[in-house]
Design a protein that fits this description.
Elements (H helix, E strand, L loop, with lengths): L6 H28 L5 H24 L13 E6 L15 E3 L8 H35 L1 E2 L3 H14 L6 E5 L6 E3 L5 E5 L7 H17 L1 H14 L4 H24 L4 H14 L11 E2 L6 H8 L11 H20 L9 E7 L10 E6 L5 E5 L5 E5 L5 E7 L6 E11 L6 E2 L5 E9 L9 E3 L8 E2 L3 E3 L7 H5 L4 E9 L5 E6 L6 H11 L3 E2 L2 E3 L2 E3 L1 E11 L2
Parallel strand pairs: 4-6, 8-14, 15-24
Antiparallel strand pairs: 1-2, 1-13, 2-8, 3-4, 5-6, 5-7, 8-11, 9-10, 9-12, 12-13, 15-16, 17-22, 18-21, 19-20, 19-24, 22-23
Helix pairs in contact: 1-2, 1-3, 2-6, 2-7, 2-10, 3-6, 4-5, 5-7, 6-7
């Protein structure tokens, strides 16, 4: 299968997701602002859910069924209309299929491709920044030394028990680290400056409490997800704002955790200030690590930690569950909602049999007029099918289902109209029988017979030949050495008897025709069942008269 150019589809998905995350992150911003009297831990949870929802949005857009609010009734549509002058006599009837698009003129494919190229460049630059930071962290960790110190180990174990951290914590120090840095999720690492070995108990306890609070809260993984969201939506200002607020509230929440351990706010602020004075730039590791005394946010942190009225409580499990459910209830309908830009290039139709029952598992094939572009799908249990990624142009449609005639609609032109969708009806395929009648001087050999069809697909049961009388070779024709093929058309009635027998070829010996008609008129079939109900079906019977030496 050769797919069509997908630039317009992905452009529509990108635009649709961008519009939706505007709503998601706007809600997160409003809730975070309204919760300014709540704890930093709660605001961090709000931003975390908003960022996670923005990452899940593209995936859920493809997985969830469409949710149509009825806007499409007022949108323009592509109608599958036969090309002027096209011969559609071989099709099963005029059954146009609608392709819905947003109102307005279609955008050039070149523009879509250019827009996706620009997005790809921005994504590449952003990913280089993130993965470069991760690579530098890995290098710093690899070139550092393991910190083996009884005082550090005792403090880490004590704080870990209080924070219920069961994962092993690795402590390392080196020349390339100016500030305490935490990174990693399953095997977290705390990177310390080389001078950390000489720190006194008060500074050592402040650093351990802050960094282990990050680990207990899972802040590093959440921050990486925020950076990935910023990579995908690098062009969206709300994505940058969400990542910035997430990092700030993460530091505020860990500051609160430190002071909840009984450390005085003034002592904590003094320790942070001393660390900030002795630090230098973290360079490209900023986005991939969590640092204790990042200078860009110190003023707000000092103001918060010295304010005795700030709420420093952590979020309870119940509050987390309620916030998560609220995010899910907002995300699911938003992901299923199809905006106008996301309905581009979608062809839909419904396939029925003559009894108006839907036909499942029919193969739908659409081919471009140049024969180099083909898309295929199958109808669902409700008979519906959907094809995407089709640009305006000329196509050939074919629907195939065992037991039914092939539906063909050649030279279909995608053009604008406001027609309504019509159903596609598949006709039951005729039954073919062929009988060989062999004449020879010795006793006539048993003829070869073949019943072409049996029960297929579960919704149509083809007739079976139950009683077949073998045609006799006329003695006068055999003596005269006459051979030939008699083609008969009949309708198998609902009781299985052949009706309306008619000779299709007239240039044949009358004796051969008479023998064939006499025998076939006595044949009996099982009824043809469509969805359990008997119907009439056409049949073509071929009787071959041949002489052997």
């Amino acid at each position: 299968m050769i797919a069509f150019d997908r630039s317009e589809l992905w452009f529509a998905v990108l635009v649709g997701c961008s519009v939706k995350i505007t709503g998601l992150l706007s809600v997160a911003w409003i809730v975070a602002k309204a919760a300014r009297t709540q704890s930093a831990s709660f605001r961090h949870l709000v931003w975390s859910l908003g960022i996670l929802a923005s990452l899940m949005l593209p995936l859920l857009t493809f997985l969830l069924p469409d949710w149509d609010l009825g806007w499409r009734r007022n949108t323009e549509q592509f109608l599958w209309a036969p090309h002027p002058g096209a011969d559609v006599s071989g099709s099963a009837g005029p059954s146009p299929v609608i392709v819905e698009v947003a109102a307005g003129a279609p955008t050039s494919s070149n523009f879509h491709a250019l827009a996706l190229l620009v997005w790809g460049i921005g994504f590449l630059v952003s990913s280089t920044r993130l993965f470069g930071g991760l690579a530098r962290l890995a290098w710093v960790s690899a070139t550092s030394s393991k910190l083996i110190d009884e005082n550090w180990t005792r403090t880490v174990l004590e704080v870990s028990r209080k924070l219920r951290i069961k994962r092993p914590i690795r402590l390392r120090y080196g020349y390339h680290t100016a500030l305490p840095i935490t990174w990693g999720s399953f095997r977290p690492v705390i990177l310390l400056p080389r001078v950390a070995r000489k720190w006194q108990e008060d500074r050592r306890r402040v650093v351990v409490c802050h960094e282990l609070a990050h680990i207990a809260r899972g802040d590093w993984l959440v921050q990486i997800l925020a950076e990935i969201a910023r990579m995908v939506y690098w062009f969206h200002p709300l994505a940058w704002m969400a990542a910035r607020h997430l990092r700030q509230d993460s530091e505020h929440a860990c500051d609160d955790s430190v002071m909840n351990f009984g450390i005085e706010p003034s002592d904590y602020a003094e320790q942070l200030l001393d660390l900030a004075k002795t630090s230098n730039s973290l360079s490209s590791t900023r986005s991939a690590a969590l640092a204790l005394a990042r200078q860009s946010n110190l003023e707000r942190r000092f103001a918060s930690m010295l304010n005795p009225y700030v709420n420093r409580k952590s979020v309870t499990g119940r509050a987390k569950s309620i916030a998560f459910l609220a995010a899910v209830f907002l995300l699911m309908p938003l992901a299923a909602l199809r905006l106008g830009s996301q309905t581009l290039e979608r062809i839909r139709g419904t396939i029925y049999d003559p009894s108006s029952a839907p036909v499942p598992n029919a193969i739908v094939i659409i081919t471009g007029s140049d024969k180099n572009k083909t898309e295929m799908t199958t109808s669902g249990m409700d008979g519906r099918f959907s094809l995407i990624d089709l640009a305006p142009g000329e196509y050939n449609l074919k629907i195939v289902k065992a037991g039914f005639e092939d539906y063909k609609a050649p030279h279909i032109l995608l053009q604008r109209d406001r027609e309504t969708s019509r159903k596609i009806v598949l006709n039951v395929a005729p039954v073919n029988e062929e009988v060989d009648v062999v004449g020879e001087r010795r006793p006539t050999a048993a003829p070869k017979t073949a019943t072409k069809r049996a029960r297929l697909g579960g919704d149509i049961q083809q007739p079976k030949l139950l009683n077949k009388l073998q045609p006799m070779y006329p003695a006068s024709a055999r003596a005269a050495g006459i051979e030939g093929t008699v083609l008969l058309h009949a309708v198998i009635g609902m009781d299985g008897s052949p009706l309306s027998l008619r000779v299709m070829n007239t240039e044949i010996d009358p004796e051969l025709v008479r023998s064939a008609l006499e025998a076939v008129s006595k044949w009996r079939y099982s009824p043809t069942l469509l969805n359990g109900e008997p119907i009439e079906v056409d049949t073509t019977i071929t009787v071959n008269f041949r002489l052997t030496s």
